[in-house]
Amino acid sequence: DAHKETLSFQTEVKQLLQLMIHSLYSNKEIFLRELISNGSDACDKLRFEALSDDALYEGETDLKLRVDFDPEARTVTVTDNGIGMNRQEVMENIGTIASSGTRKFLEALSEDQSQTAQLIGQFGVGFYSSFIVADKVTVETRRAGLGAEHGVRWESAGEGEYTLETVERPERGTCVTLHLREDAEEFLDDFRLRNIIKKYSDHISLPILMIKRDEEGKPTDELETVNKASALWTRPRDAISDEEYTEFYKHVAHDFEEPLSWLHNKVEGTQSYTTLFYIPKRAPFDLYDRDKRYGIKLYVKRVFIMDDAEQLMPNYLRFVRGVVDSDDLPLNVSREILQRNRQIDTIRNGSVKKILGHLEKLAKDEPEKYSEFWQAFGNVLKEGPAEDFGNKEKIAKLFRFASTHNDSDVQNVSLDEYIERMQEKQEKIYYITAESYAAAKNSPHLELFRKKGIEVLLMYDRVDEWMMSFMDEYNGKPFVSVAKGALDLGDLEDKEEKEKAEQAEKDYQSLLERMQKVLEGKVKEVKVSHRLTDSPSCLVVSENDMAMSMQKLLKQAGH
Ligand code: ADP
Ligand code: MG
């Protein structure tokens, strides 16, 4: 039955649409990129599902997109013969804000209205961008493999409601028709549409077809391919412009912003594969979400296999986006197979090395970009030493900390830089962890170090304490927390001072005993310290105990 129903958008969708139309008004043309991107994704999905069920092709294996316009009806139409959607899928995908990313986005929006435009940019707008140029959008779709009677028509003016009905649709795939607003009639133009496609969608590997026009601009019966239609990563590096790399990033990462940096490599040998990785500019909302969506897309011989192939990238590099295309994996590879596949391990190890190397180079050649990177993803990278023992040293090389050397909360001191500045007899890397920069910087534990002019790294991110428990040394130099245990400065110690301290210990023996009694049950031990210069006393944890900040953290968590 064709039963037609009228459904409401979630209230947030309405809000989102209004914001979007407003903030993207000067950048209307991106609707076409978003619709083409979706059509291309849909074809990728069909190709993948058809690997195990050939019948889904319904005898038509040429996957393609098509863009049409009709000046009389004032419509622009984007059609694909990809996977299509059934009624349920239409409701879930374009009737509601179902994805957790979108919900998070909206939460962030309501928290901080002032940053709306930026947030929208960061989030990406997808299908809803249709309403920037259209006052009515019609989607007709049929899922591959279902009968023609299972077509679905979705229609909405973008104002809070949409209708859904079952229609007859012999063609598989999806057709999106935009009924243009009066101020968007500029898109009823062959030349304009072709230019937009070239600008944003040249990298799409499927042909994007438009009707060929004669010299007078009259439509002919022929179709022609408007884009380059070859997978971008298969092309040689020097044949790809920065703009093309950037547009491809927006497509694979579903991001609206430009990437920070990218690396494109072809590996040949016992295994052949191509990787194109991107470092985004900003952390996505779901960086710490376990069911985050986008990561690395896996292709085998140019055929899309899966999104978010988590086996290809360790967790601490989960912010990396891009494509791995293997020439050797079987086409019917599944997630289960990926989990214990030696070829995958090789690709993953190679990729990690490349990315760490790339970041190192970025830090050297483009320090400003690197500091942007560190701000966005430093805390994720700090998960590295725990997860990837083999690359610990390489990862630590990328770390940046605040330090007593520049007395600022900017994290820009590398371990190499610290070592270079070490005093003559200094053998250790001194650091302190605390809850905030201010707490670290003002810690009485630093007094002696300041007096002696010994640099101390100031760590005040939540992960630092945990991360340092995996770091014994760097470049042969052990790490020492200045807030833990007896302070052993080794050769940096002043002999005279040491003797003075030992004498003081004897002199104050009875005072110490009295204090110990008063504080019984509250402290383990009261000692004379020579680590202080101005403060009368400080709390110290013993060598093997957790640092204070960690103890507080656990207490907050209810331990
Ligand atoms: P995204 O592409 O980032 O997932 P969109 O708003 O562009 O977000 O699209 C939302 C969802 O709608 C897609 O994930 C997909 O499931 C579905 N969709 C959109 N366009 C198509 C299409 N042409 N064919 C099949 N599914 C589609
Ligand atoms: Mg999309």
TrEMBL record:
Keywords: ATP-binding, Chaperone, Coiled coil, Cytoplasm, Nucleotide-binding, Stress response. Residues 27-184 form the Histidine kinase/HSP90-like ATPase domain. NCBIfam families: PRK05218.1. Residues 1-335 are annotated as: A. It is found in: Cytoplasm. Belongs to the heat shock protein 90 family. Molecular chaperone. Has ATPase activity. ATP binds at residues 34, 38, 80, 85, 93, 100-101, 122-127, 174, 335. InterPro entries: HATPase_C_sf (IPR036890), HATPase_dom (IPR003594), Heat_shock_protein_90_CS (IPR019805), HSP90_C (IPR037196), Hsp90_fam (IPR001404), Hsp90_N (IPR020575), Ribosomal_Su5_D2-typ_SF (IPR020568). It holds the Pfam family HSP90. Residues 494-521 form a coiled coil. One of its GO terms (cellular component) is cytoplasm. One of its GO terms (molecular function) is unfolded protein binding. PROSITE patterns: HSP90. Homodimer. This is Chaperone protein HtpG. Its main location: cytoplasm.
